[in-house]
Design goal:
10 helices; single chain; alpha+beta; Outer membrane efflux proteins (OEP)
Length: about 450
């Protein structure tokens, strides 16, 4: 009776895991290539969209600097009424309606109400604002830096796609390996049950095989869950809210690539962006120094006046130029110059440090690739040897010449070596992708 219950529990456990597997694959599986993912990421990725908005913000700052060279034009229409003697007299002058009678002292001191509707066009034209010109150059340098940062962000997202796509390939390969291992374990379980019936195996041997079957089932479920997790991450990169289970159009294979350079290029977009950022700080420092110089601006106004709205029978204009020199603003200007100089020098140091760290990362990546190449050869050899060992032990087990524990150990070792080989292929291919990112 206990044996029947045990058998029923095993069958129920197997049915439970098969049900989980079927639910895991109930979602629609979409076959997709790496190029398709890259295209969708470039079109829809939120990180890239945000970086593009940064460019528009920087472009807006640069367009604002047009005020340094372009005129400012303002138009206004004002209506007012007054009995104030001075304002009353001025309104009549502007409207060109002043008469000799208006010079009567009684009328001058106690005038009747006069209303005036004035249309005014005012123009201001910068002529010489050297500090503003340097501010404009700084805004341009910032715009260039932001555009290059977008390029580097695109490179990084490409690397993320490469990595996630290879992880998806590895996940599917892992499932294939574990499914084969599960079939092998099931066959070993059948052989073990036959051996138990024939009397040359004991119950403990059959239980050991059962434990191995359950262990593979658990690993297989985790591997299938990993497929869904990676698919969801790729969906986030593509900004796809369907969250389908994705399947790569091609399998994980060793990528062959010749050696890479061992020196960081100054033409890399992120390093060029730092150069432009440093230039922006330099231009701001120059602007703060030029703030000590005088400014020359031209101005002009054209006015229309009338006692009725929107008529303007009387008109007149005024134009001129102003040379202004703000000699001293306490210590504010000196402190501002000091701060901008420190910011410029800090940007130079930050760029040098960034290049040094990037060089270290490149050296590390080159070593990582070399290690992956060596490990690839060793893991491939170990896989072949473990496969042969499993074949020999399986044949001996069928003939009753091998212990169950030895067979299980050989089968486990072969599965591990297969998974280790696939992981080594992933590390090798990712090392190549990472080096392409660092040397782009």
């Amino acid at each position: 009776m206990p044996e029947i219950n045990l058998t029923m529990n095993k069958n129920l456990t197997t049915l439970f895991f098969l049900l989980i597997f079927s639910l895991g694959y109930a979602q629609e599986i979409v076959i997709i290539s790496k190029q398709d993912i890259l295209t969708k990421v470039k079109e829809n990725n939120n990180t890239l969209k945000m970086s593009q908005q940064d460019v528009l913000m920087a472009k807006g700052d640069y367009n604002q600097s047009n005020a340094i060279i372009l005129p400012t034009i303002a138009v206004s229409h004002t209506g007012m009424a007054a009995t104030n003697p001075l304002m009353n007299f001025g309104m009549k002058l502007n409207q060109e309606i002043l008469t000799a009678a208006d010079f009567n002292p009684a009328l001058l001191n106690n005038p009747s109400q006069v209303q005036d509707f004035a249309t005014k066009i005012e123009i201001k034209q910068p002529i010489f604002n050297l500090d503003g010109l340097y501010q404009r150059k700084a805004a341009k340098a910032k715009l260039n830096a932001t555009q290059l940062q977008v390029e580097r962000t695109e490179d990084y997202m490409t690397l993320e796609v490469e990595k996630a796509y290879m992880q998806l390939q590895l996940a599917y390969k892992t499932v294939d390996v574990l499914e084969k291992a599960y079939e092998t374990a099931q066959e070993n379980k059948r052989l073990a049950n036959n051996g138990l019936k024939q009397g040359y195996l004991q119950k403990a041997d059959v239980l050991s095989v059962d434990v191995r079957v359950l262990d593979i089932q658990n690993q297989l479920q985790n591997a299938k869950s990993n497929i869904i997790n990676i698919s969801n991450y790729l969906s986030v990169l593509m900004n796809d809210t369907k969250y389908n289970t994705l399947k790569p159009a091609d399998e994980l294979e060793v990528v062959f690539k010749e050696s890479f350079t061992d020196k960081i290029s100054e033409n890399r977009s992120d390093i060029k962006a730092m150069n432009f950022a440093s230039d922006a700080y330099n231009q701001m420092y120059k602007s703060d120094k030029m703030a000590f110089l005088p400014r020359l601006n031209a101005f002009g106004t054209y006015e229309l006046h009338d006692t009725e709205i929107f008529r303007g029978r009387a008109n007149g204009y005024l134009f001129g130029a102003q040379l202004s020199w703000n000699i001293l603003e306490g210590s504010k200007r000196f402190g501002k110059k000091q701060k901008s100089k420190a910011a410029f020098e800090k940007s130079i140091i930050e760029k040098e440090q960034y290049v040094a760290k990037s060089q270290i990362e490149l050296n590390k990546a080159n070593r990582m690739l070399q290690d992956a190449k060596n490990n690839l050869k060793l893991s491939e050899l170990a896989l072949k040897q473990s496969k042969e060992a499993l074949r020999i032990r399986t044949n001996r087990f069928k003939q009753g010449l091998e212990k169950t524990t030895d067979l299980l150990m050989a089968e486990t070792q072969y599965s591990q070596k297969e998974l280790e080989y696939l992981a080594t292929v992933f590390k090798h291919n990712f090392a190549i992708a990472y080096l392409e990112f660092l040397t782009k």
